[in-house]
Amino acid sequence: MRLLGLWCLPAVFLLVHASERELDWWESTIFYQIYPRSFKDSDGDGIGDLKGITSKLEYLKELGVGATWLSPMFKSPMYDFGYDIADFYDVQEEYGTMADFEELLAKAKELDIKIVLDFVPNHTSNESMWFEEALKGHQKYFDYFVWEDGVEDENGVLQPPNNWNSVFRKSAWEYREEVGKYYLHQFVIGQPDLNYRNPDVVEEMKNVLRFWFDKGVAGFRVDAIAHLFEVDKEKYGGKYPDEPISGQDLDDPLSYNYLNHIYTKDQEETFDMVYQWREVFDEFKEKDGLTRVMMTEAYSSPQVTMKYFGDEQQNGAQMPFNFVLISDFNGQSSAGEIKYAIDKFLTFKPIDKLANWVAGNHDNSRVASRFGPKLVDGMNMLVLLLPGVAVTYMGEEIGMVDGYVSWEDTVDPSGCNTDDPINYWKSSRDPERTPFQWNNDKNAGFSTAEKTWLPVAEGYEQLNTEIQLNSEGRSHIKIYKGLAKLRTEPAFRYGRYESVAFNTDVFAFRRWYDGDVYIVVVNFRDEPHTIDFTYFEGVNGHLEVVVCSLESSRRRGDVVEANNAKISESESIVLKLVQ
Ligand code: GLC
Ligand code: MG
């Protein structure tokens, strides 16, 4: 047997090394998403800020993170907490000054942490100079936005141009008396959509990218990209047509899901715009050699998502966000459904592109709340060890839970627009935006203020970074750090991938490279199982525990029989084949 193994070695050796190449900075790193308002408040006003972030960059370094993407910190009246931008070239006062941002960049550079910003191209704020000028009848800026005449109903009352609804519920049209027309806002009233059929808008927004690249940012996360274009109304007799009814939310015609968004989402022109932006990104790479990375945010089908990568002719985003860990399964899903969801992106993605894994962000309920606290480490194992780039939302490394925010305290427009003091929490995004939990001081060490912009989640006295970093035993954050380190092993950088649902509860995958073989196993249920890992080719004998979840009774270095491995309730483990 052994002899045979040796005989095969040269062939395997050659095969494996053919796939190895030097990875670019973004391909092997972890991107850590910071929601600036909730990360760290440096001046005691109850609102996170840039100086706060700068003071915590060392924390990111310690985690093993090499890049951070920041939700918007630009000037904004905060109707959508920064996603309504009044000045794309300036910093919001509450968050600091341009000098503070430059300091943040400098400190990040010192620590070799890349800074990625949020590019919000779909809309501005209704308090932007551009929109204000538009209302004054300044033609150049009027043409920056999407306008339409209202229609009179049978009583002669003016109504919106058509049935389009905003993502946050209610009509997507708002009337402005100054110009006697309605403007389109796919999000809140304070977010008028920009008109991408106007070349001036296209150029203006490219300049926004250039401005921040010149300052030294390493890329952009591109917001709400699927909404960029509306159908060309000239093809419909000069009027935007109604969208068809989807069959969902039939009791609420004002809900976004009530309609099928064939005229306002995923329009073909969107992809070309992404390719054009990529050219701007590459202009900067040509100058200094640093790859500028683009991540696109679209909750679309895999077929549509892949188009953001580009094609043979043109390059697009390096990272069209892969949201399957958010959208395609939950705590009730079977291991088979989980495998199916994970395979989806891997199956559709072009062979020469990288996958990426995102389990949480500022728009979705936290991992610990969706899957239960016992699965926090298992989900971090998926994000950090599946093949591709890892993206972590701040707080997921310690297993933060959704905070409780009362109807009275709710500020997210998505919650407020429900007009429903009972069920608002299902739509509100405040729970996943509560302040970061640093320690068990006042306001979890986030701020010294009397009142923070959102209440701190209950239980922070036991759930915070300080306790977890200093704990004698295991903790989520220590496990996370272990995984971040493991991720730098060749098997996880270059290794191949194979996955299996062993039964309805247990999902596992193998990564292997150059003789190293790892198995990552996650039991999604509170039921114990005995697993035969010799199912995986080349796996037999013994496996050694490398990392295990918080409540696992195993220890690092424990040895498991490959053909008879007991996996306890909700246990997640990384195993390595003993050679
Ligand atoms: C994106 C953001 C979300 C924001 C919306 C409008 O989905 O992630 O927070 O509300 O775009 O800009
Ligand atoms: Mg502050």
Provide tags for this entry.
single chain; 579 residues; alpha/beta; Oligo-1,6-glucosidase, domain 2; eight-stranded parallel β-sheet; six-stranded antiparallel β-sheet; 18 helices; 17% strand; disordered N terminus; binds alpha-D-glucopyranose; binds magnesium ion; EC 3.2.1.20; GH13_cat_dom; O16G_dom_2; glycosidase; alpha-glucosidase
Give structural notes:
The strands form six sheets. The chain has an eight-stranded parallel β-sheet. Strands 16-17-18-23-20-21 form a six-stranded antiparallel β-sheet. Strands 6-10-9 form a three-stranded antiparallel β-sheet, with no helix packed on it. It is of the alpha/beta class and 579 residues long. A hairpin with a 2-residue loop joins strand 17 and strand 18 (516-523). Helix 8 (199-215) packs parallel to helix 9 (269-288) and helix 14 packs parallel to helix 17 (476-486). It contains 18 helices and 23 strands. Among the domains are: 123-193 and 231-266, Alpha-Beta Complex (Oligo-1,6-glucosidase, domain 2); 404-457, no CATH class. The protein starts with a helix and ends with a strand. The protein is 27% helix and 17% strand. It is globular and about 80 Å long. The protein binds alpha-D-glucopyranose and magnesium ion. Magnesium ion binds next to loops.
